[in-house]
Specification:
heterodimer; A: 260 residues; alpha+beta; 3-stranded antiparallel β-sheet; 11 helices; 53% helix; B: 210 residues; mainly alpha; Arc Repressor Mutant, subunit A; 2 domains; two-stranded antiparallel sheet; 12 helices; 5 strands; globular
């Protein structure tokens, strides 16, 4: 892009920088909003910065409802949805090669382009390594990141059962691990692939599965063909990024352990 | 709790600055995306003239198409659920937030050092940018501003009446009206009369500085 003016590059860099500053790894306001709903006491304990009346008033303006259970609404809800899209966009999950094209247009090295999903997943993994069942958690995440891109409900259940048996997890521990890594709540996302609805006799519906820390690993895809015949499968996402972070966190934790 | 309070102020400052920097009045890229979005679709020639840095070079154009989900053909449109679409939808939400005087005032108190004149109303700011852009359109800008001022003054007016009151030729008035519609400053009504858009009605004083 030799004929691209400096100002154009600057505007694109500024845009990326503004987006990254909204990401939950860089900002407690976005982080808090992403993790809702949560118990008020948990929020106040985890985020002492928000204890002042002014902070609470501003959070209320942003759509954070500070009741016994803290919930999001209005602006906060839209920001929550936007953060998920941003995660996908800058981790090449929305469309491929966003990072490569952004690097070309901005003149930045692709590795120096921030990746909000990678930053967030790393924060989450560094928290997970202190959990009681960390070995099982890490093992499940590793297996998910090393699986084929698509899997069936049966494949997923088989994988989960392996983990449950291998680590002799009781039902409560097993459920906790599933919630942290995969989650159960699904949110419908309209038409991720443009043109899917067109005049074709088949169409697709996509549901994002929200885990406790929003690792966004599973996209549940439904395909409706002629006569409403429905098939569904899971698409495992962010696998390359997760693999890389797991490797890095693991190496660091091992060396910490060896240093005692 | 001074440390906790200051911690919140720092995060709030980063957060608010990030939102402000996404506004189309502050960023050429979001301006391009938002102009396409607010028009639904735009003629390729118009976009090429207004945003040559994005559109003229084939490689840049293709990269933008891929990154932001933009369709470039005779018309330029944002693909639904592409990132450009998602971002412009989010900008609408930012506009709504920053139009709320209560929000601006409460945040303004904590960020007084950074924003001594208060937080910007980004809707008003975007309107000012469009008006300045309109006024600077070569050859047509001055007349377009005259036509706009007359529409605002009368609140609702037809082409015939504009022709009479402004003493500008009908053809030129029609050209001006096209430009005003492109900038989303006026709406054409069912009876072919023209009215200022709601934003311009809310902030019509902005026109005084033009």
């Amino acid at each position: 892009m030799s004929d691209m003016s400096t100002s154009m590059k600057d505007h694109l860099r500024n845009l990326v920088s503004a987006l990254v500053n909204l990401s939950p790894s860089r900002n407690i306001i976005s982080q808090l909003i992403l993790l809702l709903p949560r118990d008020l006491r948990t929020i106040e304990y985890s985020y002492p910065e928000i204890s002042s009346p002014e902070a609470k008033e501003i959070l209320a303006q942003l759509g954070v409802r500070l009741e016994n259970t803290v919930r999001r609404e209005n602006f906060a809800n839209k920001l929550y949805e936007f953060i998920h899209k941003l995660f996908d966009w800058l981790d090449d999950e929305l469309v491929k090669n966003v990072r490569l094209n952004l690097a070309k247009l901005t003149g930045l090295n692709i590795d120096s382009l921030p990746n909000p999903y990678a930053e967030w997943a790393e924060l989450v993994l560094r928290k997970i390594v202190h959990e009681k069942n960390r070995v099982a958690l890490i093992d499940l995440l590793r297996k998910l990141s090393e699986s084929e891109e698509y899997c069936s409900e049966r494949d997923l259940q088989t994988l989960l059962n392996e983990i449950r048996k291998k680590f002799k997890l009781n039902p409560a521990e097993f459920e906790e691990i599933v919630q942290i890594c995969i989650g159960s709540e699904e949110e419908r996302i309209e038409s991720l692939k443009p043109g899917s609805y067109g005049y074709s006799s088949e169409y697709f519906e996509y549901y994002l599965r929200h885990s406790e820390y929003h690792l966004d690993i599973i996209l549940h895809e439904y395909r409706y063909s002629a006569f409403y015949h429905k098939t569904d499968y899971y698409r495992l996402r962010h696998r390359n990024t997760l693999r890389e972070i797991l490797r890095r966190v693991n190496v660091e934790e091992k060396s910490k352990y060896e240093r005692g | 709790m001074a440390e906790g309070r200051q911690g919140f102020v720092n995060h709030l400052s980063n957060f608010v600055n990030a939102l402000i920097h996404l506004a189309p009045s502050r960023n050429y890229i979001t301006q391009f995306l938002y102009v396409v979005k607010m028009n639904g679709s735009l003629d390729y020639e118009i976009v090429e003239e207004a945003f040559p840095e994005i559109v003229k070079d084939e490689n840049t154009r293709d990269a933008f198409a891929r990154i932001f989900g933009i369709s470039f053909s005779d018309k330029v449109t944002l693909e639904r659920n592409g990132f450009g679409w998602v971002l412009t939808e989010f900008i609408d939400i930012i506009f709504k937030l920053f139009e709320n005087a209560d929000f601006r005032s409460k945040v303004g108190v904590l960020l007084r050092d950074e924003y001594p004149e208060g937080l910007p109303n980004l809707v008003r700011e975007w309107l000012e940018v469009r008006l300045k852009g309109l006024a600077s359109v070569p050859e047509l800008g001055d007349d377009a501003v005259k036509v706009l001022k007359e529409i605002v003054r009368t609140e609702r007016i037809k082409v015939d009446d504009l022709e009479r009151s402004l003493n500008i030729s009908r053809g030129r008035i029609i050209e001006c009206l096209r430009l005003l519609e492109l900038y989303k400053l006026v709406n054409k009504e069912y009876d072919n009369s023209y009215r200022p858009t709601e934003e311009l009605q809310r902030y019509h004083d902005v026109l005084e500085g033009i």
